[in-house]
Amino acid sequence: MSTGTAPSLTQNVAPLAAGAHVTGIGWLKGTAAFGLGDGGVLLAKDGESHRVEAHPDAGVLVAASDGERFVTGGDDGRVAVTGSDGSTKTLAETKGAWIDSLAVNAGGAFAYGVGKRVIARDDKGREKTLEVPSAARGLAFAPKGYRLAISHYNGATLWFPNVEAKPESLEWKGSHLDITWSPDARFVVTSMQENALHGWRLIPDKGHMRMSGYPSKTRSFSWSSDGKWLATSGAEAAIIWPFESKEGPMGKAPRECGVRPAKVSRVAFHPNTLVLAVGYEDGCILLIRLNDASELLVRPAVKDSGITAMAWDKGGKRLAFGCEDGQAGILTLP
């Protein structure tokens, strides 16, 4: 189905003028927080918005949220946290560095990378540092417990910051970019410089999973709430890998949903149902129901307004999105 014939939800979108490239989005209960390339954080709630200068005279490079905090890393070397009340403060600072990898967990911890060093701070403020073999590119906390996955050149490292045990190495040649855990913690998957994904089965055998065939790099992935599907960007459709078996997707073909003449730039699974939000480089957004591949149009293509960030709220009633040209919006489901 093309976007010209898809039923439309465009009338349910409240547009926002973020004013700068949107680099990350999080929800602080009922407030949407947009991290911006000019250093600001835009807070939007109930049709009103308020800008916070989280990184003055700098830019937000990366953002993460646990529902209570919107944590941002900037090219000013700072990790900042912004609350729904508009307060903002510095959590950590490393002068002369860019903070472009960041993770938070629901227990109050956060971690960030500075070159080869990864710094993790738990909910009690205890800080630990690990040096990995090359620059840390992606960070992700395990779904449960205080354990961190770090992607870098030639593989990934799994680290318990508060345990003296040696970190676990997951090896595979090449440059690994972003990293994610499956919701059941059975799999760790990275995106790679070589237009592919690589995964490791942590249970039971440390087996490798190679997922290739992308025409460009994957820089966005999202797990379904049941953990059985991993949606990815990087092609002219959302590529969705099956992970329901203990073998992962090996020997199985992925599903392709939302085929259009534009590359998918962001994907975000609904938190409760098998509905995927798919954002494209041409600015279009579709909602796709996996059961029957039916599509709903959220935003038509807009010139020079590619989708750069998307996030559902906790209940799955609203989808916030942001674009490269500073446009943004919030879809409220009917």
Unreliable spans are none
Oligomeric form: single chain
Q: What string gives the helices and strands in order?
A: EEEEEEEEEEEEEEEEEEEEEEEEEEEEEE
Tally of DSSP β-strands: 30
Protein name: WD40 repeat-containing protein
Organism: Microvirga lotononidis
Keywords: Repeat, WD repeat
InterPro entries: Apc4-like_WD40_dom, WD40/YVTN_repeat-like_dom_sf, WD40_repeat_dom_sf, WD40_rpt, WD_repeat_multifunction
Write the layout of secondary structure elements.
Elements: E1 13-17, E2 22-28, E3 31-36, E4 40-45, E5 48-53, E6 60-65, E7 70-74, E8 78-82, E9 88-93, E10 102-104, E11 110-114, E12 117-121, E13 127-131, E14 138-141, E15 148-159, E16 168-181, E17 187-192, E18 197-201, E19 208-211, E20 221-223, E21 229-232, E22 238-242, E23 255-257, E24 264-269, E25 275-280, E26 285-289, E27 295-299, E28 307-312, E29 318-323, E30 327-332
Antiparallel strand pairs: 1-30, 2-3, 3-4, 4-5, 6-7, 7-8, 8-9, 10-11, 11-12, 12-13, 14-15, 15-16, 16-17, 17-18, 18-19, 20-21, 21-22, 22-23, 24-25, 25-26, 26-27, 28-29, 29-30
Protein name: WD40 repeat-containing protein
Keywords: Repeat, WD repeat
Pfam families: ANAPC4_WD40 (PF12894)
Describe it:
By secondary structure, the chain is mostly beta strands. It is built from no helices and 30 strands. Keywords: Repeat, WD repeat. This is WD40 repeat-containing protein. Pfam families: ANAPC4_WD40. It comes from Microvirga lotononidis.
